[in-house]
What we know:
The complex is a heterodimer of chains A (about 200) and B (about 950). Helices cover about 25% and strands about 35% of the residues of chain A. Chain A has helices spanning about 15-20, 45-55, 95-105, 130-135, 180-190, 195-200; strands at about 25-30, 35-40, 65-70, 75-80, 85-90, 110-115, 120-125, 150-155, 160-165, 170-180.
Amino acid sequence: MTADTSVRTSPLAAWTxxxxxxxxxxxxxxxxxxxxxxxRARDAVAVARMGEALGVAFPADxxxxxxxxxxxxxxxxxxxxxxxxxxxxxxDRRALVEDALRAAVRPARGAVVDTSAQRTTLALSGPxxxxxxxxxxxxxxxxxxxxxxxxxxxxxxxxxxVLRVDDAECDAFTLLVRxxxxxxxxxxxxxxxxxxxxxxx
Amino acid sequence: xxxxxxxxxxxxxxxxxxxxxxxxxxxMTGYRGDTLASALLANGEHRIxxxxxFGRPRGIVAAGSEDPTSLVQIEQPFPEPMLTAxxxxxxxxxxxxxxxxxxxxADEPDPARYDAKHAHCDVLVVGTxxxxxxxxxxxxxxxxxxxxxxxxxxAGGALLGTREYLDERPWTEWVDDTxxxxxxxxxxxxxxxxxxxxxxQDGFVLALQRRTDxxxxxxxxxxxxxxxxxxxxxxxxxxxxxxxxPVVFADNDxxxxxxxxxxxxxxxxxxxxxxTRAVVFATDDSAYAAALDLANAGMEVxxxxxxxxxxxxxxxxxxxxxxxxxxxxxxxxxxEGGDRVSAVHVAPAAGSDGSADAIGTAGAADTIDCDTxxxxxxxxxxxxxxxxxxxxxxxxxxxxxxVPGQAxxxxxxxxxxxxxxxxxxxLRQGWEAGCEAALATGSxxxxxxxxxxxxxxxxxxGLVLWRVPGEAPRDAPDTRFVDLxxxxxxxxxxxxxxxxxSSLEHVKRYTTIGTAHDQGKxxxxxxxxxxxxxxxxxxxxxxxxxFRPPYTPVPFAALAGRDRGELHDPARVTAVHAWHVxxxxxxxxxxxxxxxxxxxxxxxxxxxxxxxxxxxxREGVALMDGSTLGKIDVQGRDAGRFLDMLYTNKxxxxxxxxxxxxxxxxxxGMVIDDGTVIRLAEDRFxxxxxxxxAAMVLDWMEEWLQTExxxxxxxxxxxxxxxxTFPLVGPRSRxxxxxxxxxxxxxxDAFEFMAWRDTVLDVGPxxxxxxxxxxxxxxxxxxxxxxxxxxxxxxxxxxxxxxxYGITPYGTETMHVLRAEKGYPIIGQETDATVTPQDLGMAWxxxxxxxxxxxxxxxxxxxxxxxDRKQLVGLLPLDxxxxxxxxxxxxDTDDLPEPPVRMLxxxxxxxxxxxxxxxxxxxxxxxxxxxxxxxxxVPVGDGLVPVTVTESVLYDxxxxxxxx
Lengths: 201, 964
């Protein structure tokens, strides 16, 4: 399934330049149109089957995530709650991934919901990424406390986000934010970067 | 020109950087590293302003944030009220003046940035005096993550007021080395100019960092001026030091009367002498150090007046060597002077056993001329943060102060905050606290050598003396000030105890002592002592007043931080928001959402715009952005059963492909939300909620699923923002939809009311829509749902396809009018948590067959079945042009009597209708349905507006317009 991007608009399309201008203090860019599926399942066998179907084991521990590749390309699975996961794959893979998950979860209790446009995704990195996040996020993101793969639902400033640590040593993070809050969050990131940008210029 | 009282050398000021400033209209100079207070003293200026109540001249009492009197108003670079001169770092161009209590806020917005930052650590150390630095160094060397905060611009703590040696070097070298090591250690964050002002549960500490205040006009605009640090610490070491305590005597408030230790700080830290000729009033050995240091620096010290019966022998001898007259067994009984103290009265103290209550004055007073009186009444450990953390306090009668008692498990105290006065003990306590804190967090502290320090003389214990005994003058105001900022005296305290107050909390509120900017740092303990004496009780039996955050004043601007302007509260926007803005929409706030309210054309007012939008919806075609509607995907084998329990009507019987309107009640049978339920598959539904209740309904579902019905195979997920939702309304809506969805049979039979279809839209590749035939206006209408990504393109395509039909975008106001004309309630507008479905005239939506559902039992309550419940009706003002105010009361009289007036109900919605060509309203009215046809009245302003009660449905009662 393909889609013409000219008829798709991501929540932060209008912010591309403003976000790009934050570099090098903060490398931040929207990763638009990712496939996102909310998965609910408690049955361990069903969860394992879904992992096999995607080629990446579902995270077993709270506040962690897994990443791997399989028939649907690179896939991340984020732990969202005791029986809730968010499966993130590349753009335009929704139908196939949803079918695979739905087939794998049966006959156990479970649910698969397309939430691709519910949130948009921001990739953050750079020497001040952790500093900028610390202005609005109460979570300890020191590598010793939040190693690579850490995934939490928290507040960044006044917006709820899913925050994933992509690479703790390189200070690379992913933020998933509800689409309606995306512009607020982008404005906040720009504001929180002011001092670090000035220090570099 | 160098200031008169600045010594030629010494002090931690940068003599190469001269700073000009203006105080009380006088231009002066100081140095980088000065506070406003030290610069003023260097220029011989003691008088800051006048007191708030009595207008008495007041000066500078202390050298830090405990100062009770030196309130100033900053005028330049930006107005800021009520700062203490002792905490304002000097900068070039500063303009300030003294304040009698209150100041003024700027009448323009503060241009400075304020922000906040979170920090996490194993060990937080508060204070960089000898104890704090040892604790931090020990924990840091052990590999712990350490945050160190200190309110001063320079590390050293109490050492700043001394010329101590550590490891046989001036203390500055050891401190600077230690600071350098801490700064160079990864995982250590050292914050100077940072005051920990609040300690909360679980190791949460708030601290205010003054980052650019000291730069004045040179502060960079991009840098946050002040920052609130939100620190979460596994272990906390409080090395907060001690405040010197004054002694209360008559006329103890004149400028030039200072704390002895503070004078020492001005000497050693700033190279400033407090005057030319001093008298020192001592109750302990530490005040002698001030006398000796000042004498060494060249100041004339006329006398040391020691309240103790005998003076310490060695110190006395050293004083004698300087020609200082030491008068043991004497007290200061009063002072003379105007804007500056000019003499002190000294008299022998009665009693010889050294106890406070035995001291009185006896014999004739002697007068000693001086321009400076230094007072040392002992030291209060700074236990504010310890107490905030939940530590208990214990009264130490030897010190005359409260000291830390039982500490919370994660809190340790070190240094003079424990009551220790000996430098070696402070260092050792710091090391111990650092070790224990580091060990508790799994770090392994190495051996850290304690720097060698000179043993203290410590010859003779101090005398605890709250006030010099004596009576208040009979025919003049009492001048024995306890709280100098509040102008509260010994007489005020005694009046409180005389009135029967015994609790310190009550005395505090009665006298206002301890309620000023300084929160009683120098007056609290003395008040407790005077109260205890007056009541004849032990101070140890008195519960001290509660220490609450903040330790020092915190500007609201700092607490607000970046949460101001557009960042104050997130504005949630839909995918099509930019289009609405470009089209000139005005917005209505619904929760955090920005919803288009109406789209005025140039020159249109709201009424005109809304009438035009309504007309388009009823006569042509109109389009709305309804994306904010809450949407919840409900999946699982038991989804139908679950929804049957949640809604008042039956959902499990709904066929796939069909839609049903549903009402949701709380367990009390009151309506909490409404919306549509569409059946996607046997085991899957999509339900909509009102915009404001989306999160509440999802939580409501989860609560029942997790707590009461975990056996149900049901999962609920929010998909609100996955979908963009566009109601396309009006008789021509079918034409517009047909143009955009060529593959969809839009005929009335093929696509009937309350059905939904998935279809491809002719907008671009891969654009599909879920189209629901529902109507919130009574008109033929389609709700077009596409993924939010496709929202802008589909919206524009709909506008283009509808152009030939005059398609009109409309907002929430028009939506409200259209639905009100049809009598459709809005949850939260017609309802207020006391309204049942039956009250709304919606008994048809309440199942009689279902065995159970939330709220069902309550429908049998007698109260729910009273015939005089408030019921939803329409109101038509007799004057077709009068629009009733929403919220107006409804009464059944045309002649308003004196209150109380029996109210029948109130207006819930009120509009001007294009379709009815008149105004109308909805209201909840007692026995409303029985009253249809009656004339009632609505008080508006001074008059009564007569209205006819009607059924709630006012337009197209037959429902003929639904199918186009």
